Amino acid sequence: xxxxxxxxxxxxxxxxxxxxxxxxxxxxxxxxxxxxxxxxxxxxxxxxxxxxxxxxxxxxxxxxxxxxxxxxxxxxxxxxxxxxxxxxxxxxxxxxxxxxxxxxxxxxxxxxxxxxxxxxxxxxxxxxxxxxxxxxxxxxxxxxxxxxxxxxxxxxxxxxxxxxxxxxxxxxxxx
Length: 175
What we know:
mainly alpha; 5 helices
């Protein structure tokens, strides 16, 4: 046996390829059938885990999901209820960040091995994201109170009466 099993040296390595990493593209992808191309959405490996996650991908039975949904509800109400799609994404992102930060802090307090720097960074990121989201909220339109409207109507009437009296006095003095 030779020690080097490469293609260049010896017969043992001829025709054999080295192991390829997961990131390397397949030369001949698996086909689903004749002329259908590679299977889409059926990956159970690393690529399936790389799919972007949202609040709705959380397991609904967990406390994390309930916490995240409570944050989503709170921020939705704070922003006025009707959210644009970009606001909805931002609200869900804030909810995920706050849930992650709370989980890391709780694990640290429970005595589990958690990098405190990561917990603090997650908390700061959640706080900054919440502040930025709430600062983007449009200012509410000022609404006039009903008592103030009645008072302004009375003041306008009093001003008209004063103007009428002043006009009458100037007429009498000019006669």
